[in-house]
Amino acid sequence: MSYSQIYRAFQWNVPSEFNFGYDAVDVFAADRSRLALLYVREDGTSERHTFWDFKQRSDRFANALAGLGVRRGDPVLLMLPRMPEWQVAFIACLKLGALAIPCTATLRAKDVGFRANHSGARAIVTVRANVDEVESVVADCPTLAVKIAIDAPAGWVDFHAAERAGSRAWTRIATRSDEPALCFYTSGTTKDPKAVLHAHSYTFAHTYTGEYWLDLRRTDLHWTTADTGWAKAAYGVLFGPWNHGVPVFMYSGRFDPEREMQLLDDYEVSVFCAPPTEYRLLVKQDLSRWKLPRLRHCVGAGEALNPEVIQAWKDAYGVVIHDGYGQTESTILAANLPGMAIRPGSMGKPFPGHTLAIVDEEGKRLPAGETGDLVVHGHPPSLFLEYWKNPGETAACRRGEWYVTGDRAYADEDGYFWFVARADDVIISAGYRIGPFEVESALLEHPAVLESAVVAAPDAVRGAVVKAYVVLRPGIAGSEALARELQEHVKGVTAPYKYPRQVEFITALPKTVSGKIRRVELRQRAQRDAGVSRI
After folding, report:
1. Chain centroid to CA 472
2. Which of 5, 360, 381, 469 has the least CB density, counted as fewest CB within 10 Å?
3. pLDDT level of residue 533 (50, 70, 90 thresholds)
4. What's residue 372's pLDDT?
């Protein structure tokens, strides 16, 4: 069917009761040979796990949690890296009816303490390397009574020992679709992280992520490169593929573009999802070294994807990267679906089941081509329940019947949506409104540039000017002459008023665990260094 046919015919059909552990994992476990996970460590060793393995292990671990006093509704911090135990613990929490709280494994003590106390966490599940960070704050976390670790020290419960001791017999606990299931904490900027609370319907809604955007088939091997504390991992390594019984690939090592390309080749990954940051670095490689004949579908999400990157990937493999747009607060909201005419740089059209619009500050729809706030109508099951324990923030993201995403965008006359910037990333210089993405895309076209990020820098005359932080390709040194060359290049690619009046060469851009550029840090740096251009 065409996009328009799918969109018009779509119905959510969310069951009144749903639990991903029972209604997806256990269903596919009926075939005991059905592959669920291909896991590869950084040292090259690998493991294969079936859905039957995860059914057995999650039942045992759910019994272990219950035996330790974890009850339905209790929050459980899951502070685990990319490893099969992450899926085991996650599914066990869902089966138990506990509230799973995925956290990146790199959290420091302050972050652990905040999440434990804000959520009232009953338990934490982590690895030995994080025990000291937890122990340094546990005395100040009165609800945190159960401490589980892989390779646990004295005073902690050992993950594998508890799992082995847990009974395989588990009685299904019915969970309503509108019942809280999991919670993500957003990356903090100038305020404490917000707790994004999702229901079991969110895990069901990712059935359509897997079907329509990831385009998953029974014969696929799907790889989403994502940290386990990020919502992208939940839909790409768990809910999207496993709602369809499709196996996933998981790599535990650090990102290296050459290694990532080799893994795609060695394991014949057929569906690939990565953040734009990774794609930008991948296309800087000599892509002719890898043929990737099994790669048939690619998607990107997290930030807008530059058209030149999409073209480079297509030139190499004949595969178009299908950009998509979603948030921690939602599933995919807009996407370029298979079969659609792709407009490189666009986030696509509204995802089935969603009504999107561009509105002004009063909630009035804006005409095509005019930039405004990107909003979602109503309360689809793909959307979060609330900012947990923060009614003020929950109310602030609503404008009448619209959920306000906090992103600025515009729609063209054919209904494609185009990302401009986060609402607080828009640069207003001498009355011009400048989105950083277009300037970053122009910089990326220059052969000397590996990565860039653009923010506003204070200026006494213009109010603010465009400042570019630029990471150069290996072997290229920054200079005043190169800075001027980049400025002239941007003038030639986009409107002259958008060029970066300040250029600073740096060795690396600050990023979140999900790979998004932390522009807030760069904005603060630009404010501190106002008027200074360092080469």
Report:
1. 26
2. 5
3. very low
4. 95
SS3 label, residue 65: helix
- The answer to whether 225 touches 273, Cβ cutoff 8 Å, is yes
Q: Do the Cβ atoms of 38 and 54 come closer than 8 Å?
A: no
The whole-angstrom separation of Cα 376 and Cα 403 is: 5
pLDDT tens, residue by residue, 458-497: 887 677 899 999 999 999 999 999 999 999 999 888 878 8
Euclidean distance between CA atoms 437 and 256, whole angstroms: 24
**Rounded mean pLDDT of 39-54?**
97
Give the H/E segment covering residue 123. Answer: strand 123-127
Q: Which positions ≥6 away from 135 have C-beta within 8 Å? A: none
Q: How far apart are CA 70 and CA 145, in angstroms?
A: 9
**Cα dist. 473→238, 448, 450, 486, 517 in Å?**
35, 6, 5, 14, 18
b (16+ CB within 10 A) / e for 270-294? bbbbbbbbbbbbbbbeebeebebee
- pTM for this one? 0.85
Q: How far is 239 from 205, CA to CA, in rounded Å?
A: 9
What residue type is 137 in one-letter code?
Answer: V
User: Is the CB of residue 39 less than 8 Å from the CB of residue 263?
Assistant: no
SS3 375: strand
| Residue 36 CB contacts under 8 Å (≥ 6 apart), including other chains | 25, 28, 49, 50, 51, 53, 54, 242, 247, 248
The phi and psi torsions of 364 (rounded to 5 degrees) equal: -85, 135
Report yes or no: 117 and 94 within 8 Å, Cβ to Cβ: no
Architecture in CATH of 425-528: 2-Layer Sandwich (3.30)
Q: How far apart are CA 183 and CA 100, in angstroms?
A: 6
> What is the spatial order of strands in the sheet that 321-326 belongs to?
46-50, 35-40, 248-251, 222-224, 271-274, 297-300, 321-326, 332-335, 349-350
DSSP 17: B
